[in-house]
C-alpha cells in the first residue's frame, strides 16, 4: 500500500485503506478511454486521474483491458447460481430464464455506464476479442450448471449458447437503441422470439 | 513474385507462378504449430518449411494467426449464399438448416485437418480470440442474410446466433470426441435438440 492511496487522510493515527480505490480506478479509466481512446490511454494516466499509484492499479487489475471486464466474474456467479437454484422440476430453458431475470435486475440502473463501456469496446478489436472470450466463458459456465442439474449433451451446451445469445442481443438493443424497455423485458422478448423461431412459426 | 517461389522450375522459358503456394504455406504452418507450438513459430520458419519467401507469405496472409482462419471467408459466403437461396417460403430456422447442411458437406473430408487445427487453437488464448471474432462475424452475416429475407429483429439476430451455436457445438463434438457421426448429422441432431429445449420438452 502506498501513502498516495490514502489522501482521504489518517484516522486515529492509522493509515486507512480506501475501499473505493477500485471504483475510482474504474471511473477514471472509463473517462479516459472515452476522452482519448482506449489505445492512447496508459495505466499511469488512469492511476494519476484516480489519484492512486500504478502499484494500486495492478493490485486490482491485471491490465488496462481488465478494467472493463471486472464485472464478468460476478455476472457468471449470478447466472450459475440462479440456474443451480431453479426448482428441480424447471426445464433447462426455464432455469435460464430465471438466471436472465436475475441479471436484468442487476443491470437495471447501469444503462449509462453500459452505454459508455459499449462504445469503447466497439472501437477496439482487442476489446471485442476480450468481450467475446468472457461471453464464451459465461456460456460454458451456464452449460456446466445445467449438466449439474442432469441436462445431457448437446442440450446443455446449446442451452448455454442460447442463454448468452439472448443476453447479448438484448444487451445490444438496450445500450444501442432508443428502446425504452429495460434489459429484463428485452431478454424476455428475446426468449419468446427464440421459442417462436425454433418452433418454426 | 520471388524466384524462390518457382522451384518447380521453368516452363517453356517462362517463370510460372505456383498456384499451390497458399496451400503449401498452410500445411507448413500447421505442421510447425503442432510441433513447436504457435507462439514459438515464426513467419520465417513457415516460409522456409514451405520453400517460399516471407514476401510470398505476406501476399497470402496478414499474419501467422490468419493462416488458421483463411477459410472463414469462404465459410461465410457459403452460409450466406445458402440462406439467401432458400425458398421464399422457408422459415428462418429452415433456411439456417439448409445452410448448415451445405457447410457440413464442405467439411466432410477435413476432419483430420480440423482436429489438428482445433488442438492448436485451444492451446492459445490469442487464437481462441481470433476464432471467436470470426464466429461472431459469421453470426452477424447470417443475421443480415435473414434480414434481407424480411426477417425482423430481434428474430434475425437470435437466429444468426443460433446458427453459429449449433455449428460450434457440433464442430466440437466432431473434432473432439470419438463420435463416428459426421458433422452434418451432428448439426441436425443439434438443431433438433435446440427445438426440443426451446419447446420446453
Quick structural overview:
Two copies of one chain form a homodimer. Chain A is mainly alpha-helical and about 200 residues long.
Features:
homodimer, mainly alpha, 67% helix, elongated
How would you describe what is shown here?
Two copies of one chain form a homodimer. Chain A is mostly helical and 201 residues long. Chain A has helices at 21-36, 43-50, 54-60, 72-85, 92-107, 111-122, 125-148, 155-176, 183-198, and strands at residues 10-11, 14-15. Chain A has a two-stranded antiparallel ribbon. In chain A, a hairpin with a 2-residue loop joins strand 1 (10-11) and strand 2 (14-15). The longest helix of chain A has 24 residues, at 125-148. The A-B interface holds A 91-94, 125, 128-130, 132-133, 136, 153-155, 157-159, 161-162, 165-166, 168-170, 172-173, 186, 189-190, 193-201 and B 91-94, 125, 128-130, 132-133, 136, 153-155, 157-159, 161-162, 165-166, 168-170, 172-173, 186, 189-190, 193-201.
Assembly status:
homodimer
Question: Order of strands across the widest beta sheet of chain A?
Answer: 1-2
Query: Level of helix content of chain A?
Result: 55-70%
User: Outline of chain A, from the CA principal axes?
Assistant: elongated
> What distance lies between the first and last C-alpha atoms of chain A, to the nearest angstrom?
60 Å
The pair of chains with the biggest contact is:
A-B, 38 and 38 residues
Q: Given the helix and strand composition of chain A, which structural class is it?
A: mainly alpha
Q: Biggest sheet of chain A, in brief?
A: 2 strands, antiparallel
Number of strand segments of chain A = 2
Give the ordered list of helices and strands of chain A. Answer: EEHHHHHHHHH
| Number of helices in the DSSP assignment of chain A | 9
Strand content of chain A: under 5%
Could you name the ranges of chain A where pLDDT drops below 50 across 5 or more consecutive residues?
1-16
Return the average pLDDT of chain A rounded to an integer: 88
- What's the gyration radius of chain A in Å? 20 Å
